[in-house]
Amino acid sequence: MAARMQHRFHRLLPLAGLFVLTLGLTLLGVLTRPIESLSLFWPVNAILLGLLLRQPHRATPAGWLTIYAGMLAVDLGSGNTWLPALWLNACNMGLLLTGWHLMMRRPVPQLRLETPQALLHLLIACAAGAAVAASLACLMNGARWFDGTLQTTWLAWFSEQFSTCLLILPALLTAPPFRRPGRHDFAHADVRPMLALLASLLAGLAIGGPGALAFPVPALLWCALAYRLFTLAVLTMLTGLAEIIVVAGDLVYYGVPHSSAGVGALMSARLGISMLVMGPLVVAITIALNRQLLARLEHRANHDTLTGALERSALTQQTSALMERRRQQRNSAPLALLMIDIDHFKAINDTHGHAMGDQVLREFANQLRQQLRQGELFGRLGGEEFVVVLPGATRTEALHIAERLRSLVERLEFPVTEGNSLHITVSIGVALTDQEDDIPLEQMLSRADVALYRAKAQGRNRVMAAEENL
Ligand SMILES: Nc1nc2c(ncn2[C@@H]2O[C@H](COP(=O)(O)OP(=O)(O)OP(=O)(O)O)[C@@H](O)[C@H]2O)c(=O)[nH]1
């Protein structure tokens, strides 16, 4: 009984959360809505659509009904009668369901706006959702708003819903998982593009006229080049919403008439503002895409495809950079280099086949990598020979780590057939440098190689230190 109650509680809790969120957002929309007219902007639908696209498991029939109930509760609570409340919120649901179904047909990268085409799909989904909402509004309510024509009513609904969704959704869809920002997040942030954006908005306010709406575009393009996609999406959202408020609130003369006959012009301004921000968003998406591709290419170029360890050239370059940094910082902490070679690896290939040899190399590398700390390097020199670089490790520590790795490998099991597995051992040569004895990398490698050779000569499965400096 208690278990069933608990199960029911766990099922109802997310729905209760959705209900409270809908209630809060709708209340906010209603409070900013002048009596007997449409809201300046109605962010409820865009925010709920963003939430459902990020968390599709909430979009169950019960979830949709909960949202509808939340919206109805606010409308009825604020004095609306049943029929208009049912109708009005059916329009909102029309937008949500249309937008959700069109967007959910897209693969995940499109949902996260990872390609420029994804932005076009978002535009189509917003337009279709807004069109459904506007059509339902006209169908149900006739032409009771504005100047009483069906066309103005439809366009007013459409422009408000379309522009709000297009401005808000990119920020919601690209938001990274929440984490507390660290000091480093802001340490190197370039504030100039943001200041330029602010200046362009102020210039728009000071100069006015219809062209002023486009003043922020160059600053937004600069922001697109300087910031992450999510940051840019937040900036385009804030810029767009600020401009809509300024135009609709008649705070500055933008050449947009505000009589009821001017609803069409206000609608045009809303649509224009939401489309102006598409350009900077496409630039930011393209840059993010290029960065990802470059990072992937760089990873491919620097890492061995079989084991994921650093390639010889990347290992040499990163170790040299590490040594150079130590030199510049006059860091007297030592740096240790372990050269690790699998014993009798040829026999594994010969006995179990090359594919099994590859499997052993892959698993061996995975296990070794897991033992290393951040800042330590792991590379493959070729064949079954690997290198570990340990910055700051003393002689005792380096020997201790090498011994730990040797004994770990000895205990590894590589399944060959059912109930049958093979074992391997490694020989390790250790070389160490410090400030007084700052030797080039190539010399470190050859010292470790000599030590490794001695380990092999003395029977393998052992750690030997280079004699010169240990
Ligand atoms: N499966 C597989 N084998 C490789 C790869 N790279 C090198 N080898 C094989 O690794 C073996 C290395 O053999 P040797 O250099 O004779 O060394 P060993 O048999 O480990 O003997 P010792 O090092 O003296 O203990 C050769 O047979 C290579 O063909 C690889 O990427 N995959």
Can you walk me through this structure?
64% of the residues lie in helices and 8% in strands. The protein is an alpha+beta fold and 470 residues long. The protein has two domains: 281 residues, no CATH class; 161 residues, Alpha-Beta Plaits (2-Layer Sandwich), CATH 3.30.70.270. It has a five-stranded mixed sheet. Helix 2 crosses helix 7. The model has no long low-confidence stretch (mean pLDDT 88). The structure holds guanosine-5'-triphosphate. The site of guanosine-5'-triphosphate has 16 residues, from strand 1, helix 15 and helix 16.
Could you give a short description of this structure?
The protein is of the alpha+beta class and 470 residues long.
Oligomer: single chain
Number of helices: 18
* Count of beta strands: 7
Q: Which sequence of SSEs, written as H and E, runs from N to C?
A: HHHHHHHHHHHHHHEHHEEHEEEHE
Chain-wise SSE layout:
Elements: H1 2-31, H2 43-54, H3 61-77, H4 82-104, H5 108-111, H6 116-141, H7 150-174, H8 183-187, H9 192-207, H10 217-226, H11 229-248, H12 263-276, H13 278-302, H14 312-328, E1 335-342, H15 345-352, H16 354-370, E2 377-382, E3 385-391, H17 395-411, E4 414-417, E5 420-422, E6 426-433, H18 441-457, E7 463-465
Parallel strand pairs: 6-7
Antiparallel strand pairs: 1-3, 1-6, 2-3, 4-5
Bound molecules: guanosine-5'-triphosphate (GTP).
Residues 306, 341-346, 349, 354, 357-358, 361, 383-384, 456, 460 line the site of guanosine-5'-triphosphate (GTP).
